[in-house]
Fold each of these.
Amino acid sequence: MQDAYVALGANLGDREASLKEAIRRLRAEPHLELLRLSPVYETAPVGYTDQPSFLNMTIGLLTSLGPVDLLRRLLAIERDMGRVRDIRWGPRNIDLDLLAYGKVEMDTPELTLPHPRMGERAFVLVPLKDIWPKEVPFPWEKQLSAMSLREEGIARFAARGDSE
Ligand SMILES: Nc1ncnc2c1ncn2[C@@H]1O[C@H](COP(=O)(O)OP(=O)(O)OP(=O)(O)O)[C@@H](O)[C@H]1O
Ligand SMILES: Nc1nc2c(c(=O)[nH]1)N=C(CO)CN2
């Protein structure tokens, strides 16, 4: 079994319901065991800014799938939830990114690990730090401490991703 971290984001429709539905689908996946769910944050859009604010969170899991198969399951969940791709970094009802898979480093057109843009993204690093094992140094500590969370426009939205 390998540990892996996934980022979830939603900024269209009922954002909270979309996160919950994605979590439900991840729980129903064979070969995956969800271990930790971060709090949910409301975050200002980054990259393409003329769009609604996002809800973001992260999940830590264990899996017997390899990294590419895990990514394909995440993309299948996005697709099954009706995700439409048009504008790069544009609005989406659900986004599932694979942040890290064990200590694997790879760079192929299909999958780059760790996720190449995560070190610049407070909306990823803040909820990832929340669930990172306390006994393991957080690899993005420097980037995170250099960020002003107020300027990044990130605020706690709910206690847990699966809270009712
Ligand atoms: N670590 C990764 N996690 C998710 N997708 C990845 C990763 N590395 C490469 N990709 C590829 O990126 C493609 C586009 O992903 P997606 O549409 O979610 O990008 P995005 O969320 O708009 O932007 P960003 O990649 O900056 O988060 C996917 O089809 C996938 O093959
Ligand atoms: N706040 C926020 N901004 C974004 C997000 C996101 O999840 N949250 N995702 C993007 C594409 O991956 C682009 N911009």
Note: The first helix runs from residue 15 to 28.
Amino acid sequence: MEEAKKKSVPVLPWMRSPVDVSLFEDCPLDHLPCLDPRLKVALQNMGISSLFPVQVAVWQETIGPGLFERDLCINSPTGSGKTLSYALPIVQTLSNRAVRCLRALVVLPTRDLALQVKDVFAAIAPAVGLSVGLAVGQSSIADEISELIKRPKLEAGICYDPEDVLQELQSAVDILVATPGRLMDHINATRGFTLEHLCYLVVDETDRLLREAYQAWLPTVLQLTRSDNENRFSDASTFLPSAFGSLKTIRRCGVERGFKDKPYPRLVKMVLSATLTQDPNKLAQLDLHHPLFLTTGETRYKLPERLESYKLICESKLKPLYLVALLQSLGEEKCIVFTSSVESTHRLCTLLNHFGELRIKIKEYSGLQRQSVRSKTLKAFREGKIQVLVSSDAMTRGMDVEGVNNVVNYDKPAYIKTYIHRAGRTARAGQLGRCFTLLHKDEVCFHLDSFRFLGLLFTTAWI
Ligand SMILES: Nc1ncnc2c1ncn2[C@@H]1O[C@H](COP(=O)(O)OP(=O)(O)OP(=O)(O)O)[C@@H](O)[C@H]1O
């Protein structure tokens, strides 16, 4: 049904002539034009010696004479390195900034994803003197504000007038990684928080973020970053919250130090996903400027090169036993088992923990749990203290855990996109990985038909 609906949606003209990322090759850091030597060292410290194709393609479009002329829409497989593809050019371009203010905003749908992306920025940005902040609701709002906003005169004890205090509020960060809810909290209520100077907006996991309104964060950000000229023609009151604390932050032409009397630089947008939407109505929400589409190969979505896909056909009532046998055969290798709901995640995890012969640590990770519990579980999984994570689809998007060799679809994914994001937790960064899907024999034909367009061949797994 979903696929039939999609086929009737016309593709936008600019999407018909994309830059094909599959024509690019890895590029050693030594050969990358214009790379700041300080960033080269930072990348080497991360264990990176060359850039992946999508990173080279984005670098080419953003660094050099063309310098972020167009908004970029990037559709590239899971694990292909999309995070660094935007983080590196943004950090390199901002490295020349004279005054600290909030210039880049990266929005992600979940807290764990935002933390992951913040870590990538934090590994390179300090090398060129840039500071990175996080707004995800991990700490109290007061703690978060004190991380994001500075009061230099007040802190130095030389400012007593409340009016002066307001004037002196400054951003403590150049780059902010945020989830939509917390971002809106700061926009609405944090004094001194402004998007007035924003140059880059990254919408990662775009299709997921466009699916939900999240307190109208996108129209709000777009409205606040429009110049005076654009603002004159639109009526923000239709969606802006009534107690809109930061309305003063709408950018005016030439207000920033160094930009007096010059046209204000355009806000550049970068939107990314492994399953980027082609729906014109959804893309219209992003208000893209002369967008350039980067995608990998000719098929709409692509799986990682080194992913092996297996089907396991069994009767429904025997599924738990098949799973136990599969996990036993995988030994201590890290594995994520996906179910269709938070309830079945809980049930399955409880059941697996009753199989004494499975001498591996198995934990649940689902949207039903508190964030603190989820974060603790994820940390233990990263550290290898847990071998198997039973997860609902909360885990499917973007999570990058080293050494996950196997993914199991205990419940078959309802959509191709779900398959892509689940399977994409393995075979990342050019590594080998396996995805097993448990199917009842009646499901096999339907399942394989709907996946054929991915060029996906399932091998039958014998356990
Ligand atoms: N140039 C590189 N060299 C080596 N490893 C890299 C390089 N770039 C990224 N990586 C690693 O590749 C992994 C995947 O990167 P990343 O999480 O950015 O993928 P992604 O394309 O955003 O995937 P997803 O669509 O699932 O979110 C990470 O572990 C990252 O550290």
Note: Confidence is low (pLDDT under 50) at residues 1-6, 231-250, 252-262.
